[in-house]
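Researcher: I'd like a structural prediction for the single chain below. Treat it as a standalone chain; there are no partners to consider.
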Amino acid sequence: MFLVNLLKKLFKNSFKLKFVKYSLIGVMNTMICGCSMFVLSIIGFNYIFYYILGYTIAIINSYLMNSFWTFDFKKKSFMHFIIFFSINIVFVIISEFLVYVLIEHVNYSEFISVLIGITSFTITMFFVNDKFIFSR
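Model: Treating it as a single chain, here is the predicted structure.
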């Protein structure tokens, strides 16, 4: 509760407050996604598999946290989750393609490529979530 009240005082503009909340959840999702990817890569999985699975875990957490906290979305339903998940998967595929191109054709390291993929995905999805998925 303290964090919520502090954020409200610091960011009176609701868009800024949503962005800060989304960013905090994004950091948590990035850690969840990154840790999942790291563990799967250590185990020996291919980057394509660990990238998709890491994002899937993070997408589920993202829906739960953002619908309850960031966007305070009241119309939660299984169908809404499916729409959210589907749109996220489309953007994961686009992001995965970007990572693939950076690794296989531009010869960037896996770490830098995945970091670029995560960053582009996060920024794009904030605007998609705010304007379309969780709009009132």
